[in-house]
Amino acid sequence: MENIFKTLKHHFGYTGFRLNQEEIINTVLAKKDAVVLMPTGGGKSICYQLPALLQHGVTIVVSPLIALMKDQVDALRLNGVKAAYLNSTLSSGEQQHIFQQLQSNQLKLLYVAPERLVGDARFIQFLKQVEISLFAIDEAHCISQWGHDFRPEYLVLGELKKQFPGVPLIALTATADALTKKDIIAKLALTEYTLFENSFNRPNIFYYVRPKLNYFDNLVSYLKAKTGDSGIIYCLSRAGTETLAGKLNAAGFRAEAYHAGLDKSVREDRQDRFLRDEIRIMVATIAFGMGINKSNVRFVVHADLPKNIEGYYQETGRAGRDGLQSDAILYYGVGDLQKLKSFAVVDGNPEQTKILLKKLDKMAAFSEARSCRRQFLLKYFNEEAPDFCGSCDVCLSNFEKVDATIEAQKILSGVSRLQQRFGVNYLIDFLRGSTTVKPEHQLLKTYGVGRDIGKEQWRIYILDLLHLGFLVKSEDEYPVLKLTEKSWAILKGEQRVQLVKSIVEKKDSGKKETTRLRMQPVLLEELKQVRNAQARKENVPNDLIFTDVTLIELATYLPMNLNDLGKISGFGNVKVGKYGAAFLSVVKSFCKENHLTSPMGLKDNGKKKHAGEPKMGDSKQYSLQLFRQGRNPAQIAAMREISLNTVESHLAYFIRIGELDIHLLVPKEKVKRILQEAQSMEDNRLAPLKERLGDDYSYAEIRAALNFWLHLKETGVDI
Ligand code: ADP
Ligand code: ZN
Questions:
Q1: Given the CA of residue 16, which atom of ligand 1 is nearest to it?
Q2: What is the pLDDT of residues 663-676, one digit of tens each?
Q3: What residues contact residue 73 under an 8 Å CB cut-off, 6+ apart?
């Protein structure tokens, strides 16, 4: 037990485990097989790297991306781990050297391309002479035809269990639907295994959808606010990337285009410079991204509509691998939707066309949703999710509603007069009296009754009617608007209706750092310079020296000696020895110049099991910190191995003292209702309130709302 934590700190510099890592490691150490589904950035590597270090023999890691093998091995070596890779890029002399190291038991990890294990009977025979502690199959979905990235050479891995029956095997992937998951298990011939399935939610990614109309100005002001951060902007076409990169350069940003039409050398150069943070913004087609392991991508923007949710989620998933808050912004325009629809028609293949169009419609539904975007995405991947995440544009927006009964009547009657045979755009043109509508429609009664209102406003009203079920869209290739049973009450004037008039995005409160600890941004920049220079010197990506997470901790906790430095996440023993002095001197002179003292005491004293845990008094603070990093209460509880109840009471405390916005935890309407009930009741204890409010309200929500009430009272706000 102790050993696991010691080794984690010693080699990787981490002070605690992420969700499921510890359980997975213990499973493997008990010589049992494991199947691990974890989202990008969840921390899969540690799950086999740590067992490799804790056991005799060598761990064989199968990985499909030759380009990434070298990085992984370099990263391990920088942490003092004996690791190597074997693939076609090595000379035969280099390969011989590795065989010798294997024979003399000098390697802890060996990365191999799957083709190594294919049809190379000699290599298998050789491995049988070697003590193998574990087989780790990375990107395990590549073994399945159902996955999106099938690689036939992976199929031979099915032999491993037969050839090496005593050696445990761990299969890991970040993308697997139910079918793929089953297939992975079957193809690897696993019979007794433990399945670890983390949520695919990426809590640190904030999702936004914004109108595409005149989006460039919006993009520029977003990028300006993000000084220094790097990100990817996806465009649909090669030409699109060039144009946008040009415009961004003209606006003063360090941006470059990337697409498959560029020379290989140009692409490689740009990719390298992006990894080194020299190019800030990569404007790319989806050709860019696979195999890019850059942990500090702070934003992924889609300037054009993606073709399906799968692609969108994968692309946005490239943001925030380091766990820090990141944004996914999609600029949505109906023009894009129409263009993509015409592309989706596959000649002579109506089946395929239908599938593509359906996927596209889902993408449109996501973009037009008035409900939590995160919930939409997770449901799409068959995962349950609450209807409020507090970190998407919908959850973060105020919807201004007005009585729009007359407008609703105009819309519904227009749909009816057009015989429910037309889509949104045509209806708007019809209402606004455009001369582009068919002559026979120009004679209809409702033609032109909506000239007084702009196109976009009509669209917002129509979307809201759809959202509220007063209208539906057909499932056809070209969806048309149809009335529903609910429509008639409005048409007959029996019911009035409130519709959204405008949507105002609130500033996300994740940015409001109200914790006692302050990060020093100027120092952070200095530390980045030191790191980047070191990375250039060693000719490795910046991340391999230290990720931004480590530098942010340095700039927050301001360690004053090597001992304190060792408590910073990412500083394992080897790195303390190799880089410690250089980073320490930067921190120390910064503190001296600015008369700062180190708040290091707030960090753990290093003796506890979970070294990242602060002392008792700071336990609440730590929960808040994790929450601000985007983790939900259940995840925080799991990470810290404390009860959910405890985490919720920590967060309630910060609501009470006004440091945490209650709406990040409880939807507005619910807060309102809880407070109403609480005010009307004598007895404000939890249980009676819960009884009154029923199953839709959890204890946690009620407690949070009561604390919010206390906060209002204490600050003298009347409700
Ligand atoms: P994945 O392969 O699941 O995308 P990685 O193994 O690359 O994730 O880990 C993602 C990031 O999280 C890396 O920067 C890694 O160093 C960091 N990380 C992983 N486990 C921990 C941990 N227990 N504590 C702190 N950082 C961690
Ligand atoms: Zn949300």
A1: 23
A2: 888 988 899 999 88
A3: 83, 84, 85, 109, 111
